[in-house]
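Q: Joint fold for the lines below.
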Amino acid sequence: MKVTNLGYLIKEGIRGIFLHGFMSVAAVVVTVACLLIVGSFSCLVYNVNILVEDLNKTNEILAYVDSELSDAEARSIGTKINILENVYKAEFRSREVALEEFVADHEGDTAFGGLTATDFRHRFVVVLEDNELMAQTVAQIEAIPGIVKVNASFEMAEGFITIQNVLHIASVAVIGILLVVSLLIISNTVKLAMYDRKDEISIMKMVGATNGFIRLPFVVEGFVLGMVGAIISFFLEWGMYNLLVKRLAEVDTLKLFSFVPFTQLLAPMVATFVAAGLFVGVVGSWTSIRKFMDV
Amino acid sequence: MIEFSNVTKSYTVGTHALRGITMQIEDGDFAFLVGPSGSGKSTIIKLITGELKPTSGTVHVNGYSLERIREREIPYLRRTVGVVFQDFRLIETKTVYENLAFAMRAIGAREQEIRDRVPYILNLVGLENKSRRHPTELSGGEQQRLAIARALVNNPSTIIADEPTGNLDPARSLEIMNLLQEINNLGTTMLVVTHERDLVERFGKRVIAINEGLVVHDGMDGYYRA
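A: Joint structure:
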């Protein structure tokens, strides 16, 4: 294909959009709707993911130190724990602090009135990077000399992992379904456009046009429709997100949840919308052309 | 050049359209292809234009071997073969000029080439004053002239005319046949598929007669008198 024809082919593609105005508008509207749902879902998943990760960090492991060790010896174990790969941080809590915390937790309970600091052990509060590796990390901590016992809440860790997995699967499924829906609609739009021009296509084939030459205007059409859909839905998403965050910030009970600003999502969202728009537009038109090529 | 050597073509439904066709049409020849409906004429045209591949035998068209032609070579084969149909197959939404320009653009011609070539071809077929008309504003004969112009515009070495006078009255048919002969005189190989005995006899050209998938006559004259 000569470069000089490229302008003509692109012009033909754009002409096609206006020639089938109603279907083009319908395709853009459906793409916008689908991408908005995909975008909103992605934003929600992103925020929930951050929330779950923050909660994850509250799932602490307690590593108790041998009470025979001196304060200095007990503190020195912290270095060995902190160098473990999956350890986010390990903080030393002396037996005195442990007593204070215990008393605070059981305020007014006379049964524990006679407790002293010597009844407690020095300990490390350990936060992990990845709770899926909790069992291995716990085993590594247990193996450190001077650690006598490790308390870890495997159930809680598994709960967080399950939430994250469910979120991932649900988001992939929803995004996948919506992309397929958009793809089918763009594909049908282009199919109608091609059906409308089947005589032109058969004449082009008859006089010796290459398949690439015939396809390009339709791919351009799909590309433009996909991109227009992506751009509109991106800005709508931006506006809706900011509005929602503002409204939620005004609700007292929801102040516990902090939503990331949209500007933080800008790069991934632009990439997602453009990629989805291109995919839906180009793949949708490309696949629909094939059946019209056997003329 | 078009060369069929012992060509058979069977369809999956079990029809044997061609049962061993051998024929040769040299560059610059003019030949009529005649025969009753279902005799295999359309299959021969489809084999020449690369729409079908032979079941056995060899087909050579303007340097391409059709029995082993690759999909991506077919457009280039078709640029060497212009086809004219009985029903014209014109684009009604485009003007006469645009119908020809469209055919040229389809094979990647530059705008300057189009501006030079289209008026020349319109002049050749006698439509130079109708370039801004739409096909629906033309008579049947003029529409067929336009179809011939389109077949000719990309300068193919061969033209296949499939019943080109089937929709025309005798006077217009004669005009079209004269035009095809003029084009042939300029060096284009011409294969005209027709049922019209009068025209075939009047022009006294080579006649290839097909019946039940076989060549039953191939000669300059005498087919209808036999």
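Q: Anything notable?
A: The mean pLDDT of chain A is 82. DSSP finds nine helices and four strands in chain A.
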